[in-house]
Amino acid sequence: MMGDQFRKVEQYSPKSSPRGARSPVVSRQDSSGTLKTTILLGKNPSIVPSGPFYLMKEPPGESDLTGATNLMTYYGLEHSYSKFSGKKLKEQLSSFLPTLPGVIDAPGQQDNSSLRSVIEKPPVGGKELLPLSNIQLDGFRLHPGPLPEQYRYANATPIKKHKNKHKKHKHKESGLPSQETAISDTSSETHEKKHKKQKRHDEEKRKRKKEKKRKKQKHSPEHSSGMTPGQHSM
Amino acid sequence: MASSSLENLETQLELFIENVRQIHIIVSDFQPQSQSVLNQKLQTLVHGLQEVDKLKSQVQEVHVPLEVFDYIDQGRNPQLYTKDCIEKALAKNEQVKGKIDAYRKFKANMLVELSRTFPNELSKYRALRADE
């Protein structure tokens, strides 16, 4: 009984199948034992035998421009690169726009002059720009006299500031006292000055003492002949 | 075309700023006899705005990154932005080139090792892929 059951099972097993281990649904053309199929899914799924390898895909098409090429050279930006990479750029905006009058290094949000505000709140435009009529010009009739102090800040040019800064730096390096110090110098510098003055004063004192000593020595009988005390005793 | 129009705009803006600077000088210590000069300068101001407005159409294709505006608003040199961009682009270019070179070497080594282990299969593969 048992033996008959096993035989029955073996009859239905794929090993005993007349087609071997292959699926009975798919017809196979190649008998090499290797397989490459393309499985198409969708409304009409189908299996297309297409070669000897599994999961073989077509390689992606090679693009002309990849990261393997030097893109800086490709786009002709070598000049810009050498221009900016070599030298150390100055941080301030005034170094980029040296001819622009006024203080431009301060943040634009402080005086509502930021470019962001122009984007976020665009000014009213679209109207034709016309020259001012005589009546309109009457609105610009001014009283004689100087401006109040709060409106005079724009007189200070950034170029002057840079010069002063540069000089300050030089002085720090050389340690020489400055002759062209501005009125708005910091207290630390004035302190340095005082200190240096004191040093000078001390040196002068020492010199005076030395001179006094020399004079005393000259006037003393021991030094009148220009001989040492030992020589004199001889 | 773009560079010449930009130069024109730059010149016009410089003239405009210079005119404003002169108005500032006249106004900062105003004298009664300066009124006619001031009126003339104000008309020049309007004319300057007209000239800038005319050049608007010539610079439509010029695109400026918004980050540059942030640099300018903070009182920083906008060339620093260009420098940062160039340095970043160069670093990324080098990284990608390194990756591509590494993959190429990996592929070459892989083919050598596969040809040792599976010579028949690889010859078939090479036949399929004519460029390999």
UniProtKB/TrEMBL annotation, chain A:
<dbReference type="GO" id="GO:0003712">
    <property type="term" value="F:transcription coregulator activity"/>
</dbReference>
<feature type="compositionally biased region" description="Basic residues">
    <location>
        <begin position="206"/>
        <end position="218"/>
    </location>
</feature>
<comment type="function">
    <text>Component of the Mediator complex, a coactivator involved in the regulated transcription of nearly all RNA polymerase II-dependent genes. Mediator functions as a bridge to convey information from gene-specific regulatory proteins to the basal RNA polymerase II transcription machinery. Mediator is recruited to promoters by direct interactions with regulatory proteins and serves as a scaffold for the assembly of a functional preinitiation complex with RNA polymerase II and the general transcription factors.</text>
</comment>
<feature type="region of interest" description="Disordered">
    <location>
        <begin position="105"/>
        <end position="130"/>
    </location>
</feature>
<keyword id="KW-0805">Transcription regulation</keyword>
<feature type="compositionally biased region" description="Polar residues">
    <location>
        <begin position="26"/>
        <end position="37"/>
    </location>
</feature>
<feature type="region of interest" description="Disordered">
    <location>
        <begin position="148"/>
        <end position="234"/>
    </location>
</feature>
<dbReference type="GO" id="GO:0045944">
    <property type="term" value="P:positive regulation of transcription by RNA polymerase II"/>
</dbReference>
<feature type="compositionally biased region" description="Basic residues">
    <location>
        <begin position="159"/>
        <end position="172"/>
    </location>
</feature>
<keyword id="KW-0804">Transcription</keyword>
<feature type="compositionally biased region" description="Basic and acidic residues">
    <location>
        <begin position="1"/>
        <end position="10"/>
    </location>
</feature>
<protein>
    <recommendedName>
        <fullName>Mediator of RNA polymerase II transcription subunit 19</fullName>
    </recommendedName>
</protein>
<comment type="similarity">
    <text>Belongs to the Mediator complex subunit 19 family.</text>
</comment>
<feature type="compositionally biased region" description="Polar residues">
    <location>
        <begin position="176"/>
        <end position="187"/>
    </location>
</feature>
<dbReference type="InterPro" id="IPR019403">
    <property type="entry name" value="Mediator_Med19_met"/>
</dbReference>
<dbReference type="Pfam" id="PF10278">
    <property type="entry name" value="Med19"/>
</dbReference>
<keyword id="KW-0539">Nucleus</keyword>
<dbReference type="GO" id="GO:0016592">
    <property type="term" value="C:mediator complex"/>
</dbReference>
<feature type="compositionally biased region" description="Polar residues">
    <location>
        <begin position="223"/>
        <end position="234"/>
    </location>
</feature>
<keyword id="KW-0010">Activator</keyword>
<feature type="region of interest" description="Disordered">
    <location>
        <begin position="1"/>
        <end position="38"/>
    </location>
</feature>
<comment type="subunit">
    <text>Component of the Mediator complex.</text>
</comment>
TrEMBL record, chain B:
<dbReference type="GO" id="GO:0016592">
    <property type="term" value="C:mediator complex"/>
</dbReference>
<dbReference type="GO" id="GO:0006357">
    <property type="term" value="P:regulation of transcription by RNA polymerase II"/>
</dbReference>
<keyword id="KW-0010">Activator</keyword>
<comment type="similarity">
    <text>Belongs to the Mediator complex subunit 10 family.</text>
</comment>
<comment type="function">
    <text>Component of the Mediator complex, a coactivator involved in the regulated transcription of nearly all RNA polymerase II-dependent genes. Mediator functions as a bridge to convey information from gene-specific regulatory proteins to the basal RNA polymerase II transcription machinery. Mediator is recruited to promoters by direct interactions with regulatory proteins and serves as a scaffold for the assembly of a functional preinitiation complex with RNA polymerase II and the general transcription factors.</text>
</comment>
<keyword id="KW-0804">Transcription</keyword>
<dbReference type="Pfam" id="PF09748">
    <property type="entry name" value="Med10"/>
</dbReference>
<comment type="subunit">
    <text>Component of the Mediator complex.</text>
</comment>
<keyword id="KW-0805">Transcription regulation</keyword>
<dbReference type="InterPro" id="IPR019145">
    <property type="entry name" value="Mediator_Med10"/>
</dbReference>
<keyword id="KW-0539">Nucleus</keyword>
<protein>
    <recommendedName>
        <fullName>Mediator of RNA polymerase II transcription subunit 10</fullName>
    </recommendedName>
</protein>
<dbReference type="GO" id="GO:0003712">
    <property type="term" value="F:transcription coregulator activity"/>
</dbReference>
